[in-house]
């Protein structure tokens, strides 16, 4: 659901948010409203209010579980690095960890999930013949496949069953 609950968002600053609009001219009511609005933008000494660790109590337990290792590490590093830098490093470390797990997963899938004669699924890597033009060495191109059984072999000839 949208943050505005389906209502088109409008700016609270109104027409006079733009300097160009203010230069065109403002009524006395607009000047008074803008003066109040600018005064409201000044924070009081007790703002912003920091609510200590409220999200940790209320979040999903699965999320708390997978965030726990980096939370513990960066809670100990926060006094050394500072709160903002520790939060940035925690975010970057988490993302790099997810990328590393993804790369390792893809590597595992391609290494052990290849398509050969023993299974129906998996990635099948097919190489096309190289482009050899007249006048280049290797023209005309001679295929490595010499018999009909070389086509659609999918590694069967290299298996221990054939040898």
TrEMBL record:
Organism domain of life: Eukaryota
Pfam families membership: NDUF_B6
A GO CC annotation given for this chain: mitochondrion
Signal sequence bounds: none
Biological-process GO terms, alphabetical: mitochondrial electron transport, NADH to ubiquinone
InterPro entries documented for this protein: NADH_DH_b-subcmplx_su6 (IPR019174)
Protein's name according to its UniProt entry: NADH dehydrogenase [ubiquinone] 1 beta subcomplex subunit 6
The species this protein was found in: Leptosia nina
């Amino acid at each position: 659901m949208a943050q505005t609950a389906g209502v088109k968002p409008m700016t609270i600053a109104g027409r006079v948010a733009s300097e160009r609009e203010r230069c065109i001219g403002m009524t006395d009511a607009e000047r008074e409203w803008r003066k109040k609005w600018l005064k409201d933008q000044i924070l009081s000494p007790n703002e912003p209010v920091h609510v200590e660790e409220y999200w940790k109590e209320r979040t999903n337990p699965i999320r708390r579980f997978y965030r726990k290792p980096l939370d513990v590490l960066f809670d100990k590093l926060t006094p050394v690095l500072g709160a903002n830098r520790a939060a940035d490093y925690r975010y970057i470390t988490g993302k790099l960890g997810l990328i590393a797990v993804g790369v390792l997963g893809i590597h595992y899938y391609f290494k052990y999930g290849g398509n050969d004669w023993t299974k129906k699924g998996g990635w099948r890597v097919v190489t096309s013949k190289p482009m050899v033009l007249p006048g280049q060495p290797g023209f005309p191109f001679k295929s490595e496949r010499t018999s009909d059984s070389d086509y659609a072999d999918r590694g069967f000839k290299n298996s221990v069953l054939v040898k």
